[in-house]
Every structure is written in C-alpha cells, then in structure tokens.
Specification:
With about 350 residues, this protein is mainly α. Helix content is about 50%, strand content about 5%. Strand 3 and strand 4 form a beta hairpin. About 5% of the residues have low confidence.
C-alpha cells in the first residue's frame, strides 16, 4: 500500500535505512494515519493486566492503542471537567483483607451489584453502560483473534478501564462475560497488575470466572428462573435462562454442574444433538448473536423465548458523549473527534448530522 518492497520496509522498521519524507507519507497513507502519528511517543503503561494462554504478537500494538485511547479519554474529561467517580475503591479495599477463593469471589459479585444499586434478582441489560456509571472506562476493541478476549487497566494509568474484544466471530455473550471477568480482576487482583506478567494465573482466572458468573447471574435469581422452567425440555430450559441473563449456555451449565454434577454436560449435549441433529463445537454458541433482530427492552426480553443477543447489547457511550460535548463547545475539531472515535471524517460528519 505504501508502494515499497518488503525489504525496504523492513530496513526502515529496523533502522537500517532512513526513509525520504515522501516514503513516510506513503507509509502513513497505507496505515491510515497522519504523518505526525509516526513520530508521536506513546507512554508505556505499567499497571495493566494483559495475560493469555499463548504468546500474542499483537500485544504491544494493542497496548499502544489502549494508551492513546485512555489519553484521549482523559483529555476530554479534563477540558470538559466531566470525570466519573470510581465507585468500587472501597469494595476493593475490603476484598483485599479476605482470603482468596470461591467464597471471596461470590461475596465480591454480590457487593459489586450492591455498589451499582442493582436489585438482588435484576438481570444486567447494559453492562458497558453499567460499568461506566461505576467510573470504569470501557473500550470495545476489535481484534481478529480468538486468543484475546479482554484486558484491564488500573486507576493509576488513567483507568480504571476494561477493554473487550468485540470481534464479530466472538459471541456477544462472550463480550459480556469478558467485561464482568475483567471487573473481577480489578476488584480481586489489583496487586497483580503488572505489564511484565503475560502468563495466566489459573487460580486468579478461576476466581474472576466465578465472580463474573455470580455478578451476571445472582444465585437466588438464577435458581428462581431455573425453577420457573421446571416442565420445559433441558435444551430449551438452558436457552431460556441463558437469554434472560445474557450469558453463554456454558455459563449456565457450569452453574448447574455445581448442583447436579458434571454429568449435566453430557446430558445437555446428547439432548441438543437429539433435538437438532447436530453436535456442538467448542466455539459454537447456539441461539447467539444475529444481526437481523433487535430486542427492544427488558420487558420484551422477558415476554418471549429469548433467542439471540446483538452487538447493541454491548455499546459504550460515554466517550461518544464527551466527543459530542467537546465539539459543540469548540474544545476539539470535528476532525479530532473522528480521530478519537476512530472513524473517518465522512462518517464523523454523518454522525454529527444525526445528533438530536
């Protein structure tokens, strides 16, 4: 795209050769950025939790983009004098004195819901908006990889922030669970936020998974919904409950296995194959994200058999609001707003014209 050979590009990248200004302009054009962006230094974040089962070659580039996003977000908060209070600090301090394990994770989930003023049996409908109301920045980041689901950044680095991979081949249920999972890390494992650590800690991952499960599906509410479907076939029953709480069918089965044992998995898979004639693959999410349906409200969700989730169930909107306010108050240009929202200027003009 820059009109140069791979060898020439590699020599520039490694510092073996010095490019002409015209070559740099072509590289910037090919990368879809401004020329000056090639020379802007990016701060190195330290207190980040970014771990994976396998080595990720895109790790550094993700962290660079997250750092820029956080800096843009913080800049808008400052010029507009519009910062959100982080509501979870007191809870995180309390949890720090409790012993690690399953009970701490469940307690944290219950208290996190109290902090957000959720009712004991209330399903979560807008997790991105809910987290933002608690003072956490949310970044839906699209990476074409199923090895990366999310990461989180500590308060000291311009956060607290949660980044979720919203690649369209990852189900919306997984997006939601990843956001809750990272919230669990922010509350339970803040002392392990270290950019140099890249290998998953199995005990901490399990604790964050338990937190996410009980945060999204409170114990009493889950069993009430499960009992309400008492006479329904197993597969339909699981899908009904999964739709209510907007979680994966696996999250429901994990909860059921705590009471009925691991045999519930085999029963479910056998029943699903008998019902559909197909076997479920490891990455399959039946009755998941479809682009052609929209569920308008919690009332609509509760009134019929839920059968899908949409990308509209995971939308952050605080940054977009700050950009609009900054443009309307002449704090930033429309072009700068497009850069922050990572859209082209034409799309930005369309967005501005749609504001009511």
């Amino acid at each position: 795209m820059a009109g140069i050979s791979r060898v020439a590009y590699r020599n520039i990248e490694s510092g073996k050769s010095t490019p002409k200004v015209s070559t740099l302009q072509n590289i910037a054009l090919g990368a879809g950025i401004k020329l000056q962006d090639l020379f802007v230094s990016v701060r190195t974040m330290e207190k980040v939790r970014f771990r994976a089962l396998k080595k990720m070659h895109s790790r550094e580039s993700i962290l660079i983009e997250v750092a820029r996003w956080l800096d843009d977000f913080s800049y808008l908060e400052k010029v507009l004098n519009d910062s959100k209070e982080y509501k979870f600090q007191a809870l995180a301090n309390r949890l720090d004195s409790l012993p690690d394990g399953e009970e701490r994770a469940k307690f944290a989930a219950k208290e996190a819901r109290v902090t957000l003023k959720l009712k004991p049996k209330e399903p979560i409908r807008d997790i991105a908006g809910l987290l933002e109301s608690g003072g956490i920045k949310v970044y839906p980041y699209k990476l074409t990889s199923d090895k990366f689901f999310g990461l989180s950044v500590a308060k000291d680095e311009g956060g607290p922030a949660i980044i979720v991979n919203v690649w369209d081949r990852i189900s919306v249920e997984r997006w939601i669970f990843s956001a809750a999972h990272e919230l669990g890390h922010l509350l339970l494992h803040l002392d392990s936020y270290n950019i140099d650590e890249s290998v998953e800690n199995k005990a901490e991952e399990k604790e964050a998974d338990i937190f996410a499960s009980y945060f999204l599906m409170p114990e009493e509410a889950f069993w009430r919904e499960w009992e309400d479907t008492y006479g329904v076939p197993l597969v339909n029953r699981v899908f009904k409950v999964k739709g209510i709480f907007q979680v994966s069918y696996k999250t429901v089965l994990y909860r059921l296995s705590e009471k009925y044992g691991n045999g519930i998995w085999g029963r479910f898979y056998a029943a699903y194959k008998a019902k559909t004639g197909k076997s479920l693959g490891i990455k399959d999410e039946p009755e998941a994200l479809t682009q052609d349906k929209f569920q308008h409200s919690p009332e609509a969700l509760r009134s019929r058999e839920p059968n899908s989730l949409l990308s509209s169930h995971f939308i952050e909107d605080r940054l977009s609001r700050l950009v609009r306010q900054a443009i309307e108050k002449d704090k930033i240009t429309m072009s700068r707003g497009a850069e922050i929202l990572k859209i082209d200027l034409g799309s930005m003009r369309e967005l501005v014209s749609s504001w009511v």
